[in-house]
Amino acid sequence: MDGVNTGNAPRIHGLDTLRALAVALVVLHHYTLFVSDAPTFGWAGTMGWAGVDLFFALSGYLIGNQIVAASGAAPRFGLAGFYRRRLLRTLPGFWVVLALYALWPAWRGDAPMLPLWQYLTFTQNIHLQPGTAFTHAWSLCIEEQFYLLLPVAAVIGSALGRGGVRLRWAWCALLLAVAAGMLTRATIWHDGRHAPNWLGYYYQYIYYSSWCRCDELLAGVALALLENRAPGPWRRILARGNALLAAGTAVVGGTFAWFLDDRYGFAQTVAGYPLLAFGCALLILAALAPGSLLHRVRVPGAASLARWSYAIYLTHRSVSMLVAARMAQAGHGAEDAATIAACMLASLAGGWLLFVLVETPFMRLRARWESALSPAPAPAPR
C-alpha cells in the first residue's frame, strides 16, 4: 500500500492512475462489506478486493526497483538504510490508526482486538480470524514481511554469482516462488474443502496467508528485474504501450469475470491469482510506456489520491462506518446517495488528515536524515 513515491522524483501519471484506481476499488468493496451489506456498486464493489492485488503489484515494482537497482551498485546499498526508510514510511501512520483501534471503542465497533503484539510485529495476518478489528491490515502485514525478506534475498543473490548467472538464479527463484504459491493454495484448498465453515477457512488459511498471496508482489519484482537487468527487451516491450494497455485490460477483465463466477473455486484459487498478477503487470508496463494512453493522460485528482492512498487505506473503513451510523440516525440508509457521498468524502478527508499531520512530517524527517547520513561528495581535483 505504501510504495508510492512521496519525494521530489518526477511522478508518472499512469502509476498514479493505477494507485488511485486501486484505493478506489478497495474503498468501494469495504463499503459493500461493512456498511451497506449489499451490491451497492455492482461488480466494482464485488471485485473491489482486487485493488489490494493491484497495490501489491505496484509495491513489488516500486520497492523491487529500489532494491534491484541498488544491488547492482553495492557501495550504495545497505540493509540498515533500506529498513530505516521503510519503517519511517509505514510505521507512523500505522501506529496512529492502531492507537485509534485500541483506545477508541467507537472506531473499532463491535470487532474484538487481537493481542497487540500481533499488530506491532506485522504477524496479524497469520491464521487471521475474519471479523476481528483492523482486519484489512492483513495486506500491510504481507507487504512488510515481503520487504523484510526481499533485500536479504537480493544481498544473498549478489553474493552467489555475477552477471548472467545471478540473473538466471533470480528468474528461477521468482518462477519457483510462484509455483510454490500455486501448490500451497492447491494443497490448503484440498485439505479444507469439507470444512464446516468453508468461507472462514478460506480467508484464514488462503486469502490472508503470507505464503498464498505473494503472486502480485513477485510480478512487480519481475518487472523491476526486467527493467534493470534486461534494458534492451524492456525498451522493446515499452514501445508497444497501447497494446500492453489493451492486453492488461483484457486479462484483468477476464480474471474479474472468472472470479465473479466463483471466487472460491479450486481453479480460481490456484491459477486466478497468478493470472490477475499477470494482468496487473501488463497494466503497470502500460503505465510506464511513453506511448500508452495510460501514461500520457493525466486523470484529475489521481495524483492526490495516489499520495493519500496509504492513509486512506488505513482509515477509510472505520470512517465510513462512523459516518454511516450518523447518517442512519438522520434517517438515511446505507444505499442512499447522501450516505454514500458523505462516507466517500469523509474517507478522503480522513486519509488527507493522516497524510498531512502524520505522514508528511515523517517523510520530511526521513529526507533530512538521509541527507545527513549521505556521504559528502569528494572534493574536485585541483
Structure, described:
Helices cover 74% and strands 0% of the residues. The chain has helices spanning 13-36, 43-46, 50-71, 79-103, 105-108, 116-120, 138-160, 163-191, 198-207, 215-229, 231-238, 241-261, 266-288, 293-296, 302-329, 337-373. The protein is globular, with a radius of gyration of 21 Å. The termini are far apart. The protein is mostly helical. The chain contains 16 helices and no strands.
Topology:
Blueprint: H1 13-36, H2 43-46, H3 50-71, H4 79-103, H5 105-108, H6 116-120, H7 138-160, H8 163-191, H9 198-207, H10 215-229, H11 231-238, H12 241-261, H13 266-288, H14 293-296, H15 302-329, H16 337-373
Structure, briefly:
The chain has helices at 13-36, 43-46, 50-71, 79-103, 105-108, 116-120, 138-160, 163-191, 198-207, 215-229, 231-238, 241-261, 266-288, 293-296, 302-329, 337-373. With 382 residues, the chain is mainly α.
Q: What key attributes describe this structure?
A:
single chain, 382 residues, mainly alpha, 74% helix
Overall 3D geometry? globular
Structurally, how many domains make up the residues? Answer: 1
Strand content: under 5%
SSE ordering: HHHHHHHHHHHHHHHH
